[in-house]
Design brief:
Structural class of chain B: mainly beta
Oligomer: heterodimer
Helix content of chain B: under 10%
Number of helices of chain B: 0
Number of strands of chain A: 11
Low-confidence stretches of chain A: none
Number of helices of chain A: 0
Distance between the termini of chain B: 37 Å
Order of helices and strands of chain B: EEEEEEEEEEE
Distance between the termini of chain A: 41 Å
Largest sheet of chain B: 7 strands, mixed
Strand content of chain B: over 45%
Helix content of chain A: under 10%
Shape of chain A: globular
Radius of gyration of chain B: 13 Å
Chain lengths: 111, 114
Amino acid sequence: QQKVQQSPESLTVSEGAMASLNCTFSDGTSNNFRWYRQHSAKGLEVLVSIFSDGEKEEGRFTAHLNRANLHVSLHIREPQPSDSAVYLCAVSSGGNYKPTFGKGTSLVVHP
Amino acid sequence: EAAVTQSPRSKVAVTGGKVTLSCHQTNNHDYMYWYRQDTGHGLRLIHYSYVADSTEKGDIPDGYKASRPSQENFSLILELASLSQTAVYFCASSEDRGRGNTLYFGEGSRLIVV
């Protein structure tokens, strides 16, 4: 069964500094990766999807995928206090329509 | 814009009672999901469905039933609610894009079982 682990559990950065979040997965056949954001007491919204090694940018959010290392990361450029939220990594493979989520990284951005 | 609405948004239930959580989507998506979120466990899949009148077990289906009477509606049923089912429940929908799928979530239903 797929295992998805995120680190760090919590992260505090200053406004404008780069924020980097990590996600490792166990199934080497995985090929669908998404980062979601969850503001307090709200549903999740997708930030970026990536399907092949390399990077994918969506505005200030950039995902990096290295399938050989079973690792995908999210980098947030110039984070703002409104980016304070929990960030979740979701991993699935092929025709598997049941993504497995990590436990999340809680990000706090100080003004 | 994608829209998934859940009801109720919050509920207090008595141990042993029946609870029904409802989900309605206007996205015209085939796939619908029920997840629960707990501190320390993240999001875990309870049941999902890819077509009306059919449901599938997720990773933690014990103690839960699901019903998909139409493409738009997907319910989660707790026949005998227990304390361990206190959690926040999220419904989501997605379309079959053939390359994995982006899930569109509702805002969650907070259930407290006492």
